[in-house]
Amino acid sequence: MMSDPANRILYVDDEPDVGVAFARAVGRLGYEADVAGSGEEAFRLARTRYYAVIVTDLRMPGLDGLTLVERLSPLTPSTAFVIVTGLPNVDLRSSRQADGAIASVMGKPWDDDELKSTLARAFQLNAQRKGHEATASGNGNGAPAPAILMVEDNDADADLLVALLAAEYPASSFTRVTRLKEAMERAHEASYEIILTDLTLPDARGFDAITRLQAAAPNTAIVVVSGVSDDSLAQQVVELGAQDYLVKGTLTSAMVQRTVRHARERKRAERRLMQLAHYDQLTGLANRGTFQERVTQALTRARRRGNHFAVMYIDVDRFKTINDAFGHDVGDVLLEQVGRRLHRSVRDYDTVARMGGDEFAVLADDLASSSEAEDVARRIMHSLEPAIDLGGRTVQVTCSIGVALYPDAALSIAELVKCADRALYQAKRRGRNRYAFYDVTTGEQALIRSALAADLNVALRRGEFGLQFQPQVSMEGYQLEAFELLLRWNRGDEVVSPSVFVPMLEEAGGMVAVGHWAIREATRRLAEWRGTAHPELRLAVNLSRAQVEEPGLADSVLAMLGELDIPPQALELLITEQILMRDSVRLHLALQELKHCGCRLTVKGFGAGFTSKEYLSRFGVDSLKVSRTFVSAAPDDEESAAIVRSIVALGNQLDIRVIADGVETMGQLDAAKAAGCHSAQGFLFGRPMPHWSLPATWSLVDDRSA
Question: What domain range is 101 assigned to?
Fold first, then answer.
């Protein structure tokens, strides 16, 4: 950490995460930053330590940003203040004390270039106030003052504007021209932050200056300084694209400084809105709408020239696993890095877009043949081969790519997109980390999936769903404790995998009805088993998020148990970590109600996420089912074995039982026992079956040869 006061910044914001992000960003620029979580804390810090620049959020509880500036500026007259706001059209209340102290108004979230230039300007003002040369820069980078283009043919008016803005802009930052033609030439040659222009010029009348300057410098804020006081004229000027309108003869230093600051911020807000409309905010890539526009343009060109182009849909393989394991912030960093690599891997005239989530798309334009599209797909895959650094963690990611070539796959945009999506599905079905071109087979697979979806809608009515049960046993004596209910779909002579139909069922909104039926049928079976030799036997039922959030779930479940005289403690509800951690009031209330009624709660697949002890205690979790990924690897992988041991330690601390899931070999069973797991489930004790005759004692079934 540097100790030079000339580089020192105080950042004030009541959002801790934003403060951390700011400190990291300015650290990369060579500054030292302290962070205060409130205006009151900032006031105390500024009384004990000198800050060259203080950057403060505008809206904060208690002492807001503007009031903070008013109180501190008399105490530290050389400090330059920057107001940060997320409001697109901020209009600060007039404050004689604050107006002179504020160097700039900056939007939130900021981009790196905006932050760099804003801080350079603030440190420059600080240096000027301390008597340094106007071009000095507090970080030693020598960054120039923001450039202002002044279009004014009256010498006295030009000199007055320079004098009124002297507190923030040295004379060297002004470029003055007297004619619109000269202004147009300068605007084409260089980039300006502000253009101050009169409407009446030797070679322009009316609104020529506004319309032509805006066309020449679309990203530059324009402020009209006119000798005419006319509200109607001022409104027309703003409607034509200027950011503000000043009247000569009424100008004060504070007024002009405020106007210029607000004009800059309004222009930045306008650019941000354009960015929001056309580009993805996380990756900076084109968004879905912009991608559709680019594909439309490519289609028009291809029809005219007779060439090819390709639409590619790209998914990051197993992104959900990484996102769930490390959190959404890390997931966002990963997507940002992937976006950059995709952008670098394609040709200059291709388009890369983020379509949402972990899905990207590429328009490979102007292709001579399908082999060129294949080259682009290979380069994309190669770009992801190096490991990605996620702030101390490195991960290896791959992608699946679906390619639809025009005109081979389809002739319309809608069909091309569908074909690319179907090809992507085919690439993932083949094992991921590969690309697939749309072909007839891909189309047939899509038709098969559509037929599955149609049959799924009537499967319950046809009686095609079946139930299977897998035993769960204690580690001591391998005594039968429970059966886990597993749903199966018997579609004619075909048994459809749950990994295929369950997501489709949830997507179609049918999981609640099917789940209700499955629980009712399974509890009847449980009543039979408990009435024979196993009065303490439990039933473990998997619940989806939709089922848990369904109104009246607790009443429905308890009614079914009551009809069969089964105590609620005999029902074990299995949910994922993701469901437990979901920020849903309805879900939390439903879980609490079920627990209050006496049902047992088990978190399955435990170890892949970050469920806190607080959540486990809050919902009274009874069991943790260790992810089969760690159980299967534990005999040969010390890291996996250590994870299982840590889960057992957590369970013991909270008086929660730990179940080893997916035990298939004696080696895995030994590792789970050594780690301290209380129960186990897996092929070693029996595969899922629709019917069980329960023996007096349970024997192991070593399925290693299966």
Answer: 5-129
